[in-house]
Amino acid sequence: MAKRIGVIGGSGYTGVELLRILHSHPETEVVLTTADSNAGAMVGELYPSLQAAYPHLAFTSIEAADLDGLDLVFVALPHGASQAIMPGVLSSVPHVVDLGADFRLPPPLYKEWYGEEHTAPDLQGSFAFGLPEVFRSNIVSSAHVASPGCYPTVSSLALAPLLANGVVAPEGILVDAMSGVSGTGRSAKVTSLFSEVDGTIAAYGLLNHRHTAEIELVLSHVAGAPVSVLFTPHLVPMVRGIHATAHARPIQSGLSTEALLAMYREYYADEPFVVVTDAPPTTKACMGANTLHITVRYDARTDSVLALGVIDNLVKGASGQAIQNANILLGIPEATGLPITGLMP
Length: 345
Description:
By secondary structure, the chain is of the alpha/beta class.
């Protein structure tokens, strides 16, 4: 019998991506989705791309949503919104995957990086951090998951083998990343207008982007020691995709690019969604897929290590990874229903 699934916040980009991928999932059935501002509208009316997949599914309001009998709920709401509803959601369904930032960080880090008190601090410890390639055992033993952000996903996985094997210093790591405009969400804002983003690249969140905390959290766990990262994101004129370039200082001698590539391939040998490439990866290769493409280089001239990673910010960076986490929670083979081939051209 198919698992009964609800999607709270189904009208945003991550919500509609959940609906798109879940339709091809052989072991799930979406029976409910909410969108307060579009309550009553048919899913296919708002998103014609989903008309054939969901001809009879309509958005409902959160207040009117009946969660009883659901096996799992995805929460894909703007930052801060899931805190208010989560107590009720957790009391109604056995499993929750939250795509927002509300339950990713422990209370002290949350207040430090978000500048406000959490309204449901007693629930923050109920969620496993949903990066399966690093925290799979935690996810398996949990009932609920907080999926990480798009930047932390690609940045952390690009650097993890280096820190896990003690190849680079845990301090002074630089990550420069570029993201497509869909990462800013569907709500109208001047900074994401076509006339504002076309033909230009701009950095934002300088020195204090909130995803820094997640990157450091993951990498400190991997390294077994505190890791510090200077993270700088950029908005680029494309719809989907993230490209991250990480720079780190080696603390081992005798390094070579060939040896590092072999180390990466061994580290990710059992990970179905991680592709280690000889050539520099391109965002196009991951478009629409739940994959991460990475490569690594050692530069003898500057004695530096360079790691590069790309993902689709809406798939491995959000909805695809959320479904990957849901599969684990539900006891379904992890790769079930998830695309691994990118769109070309």
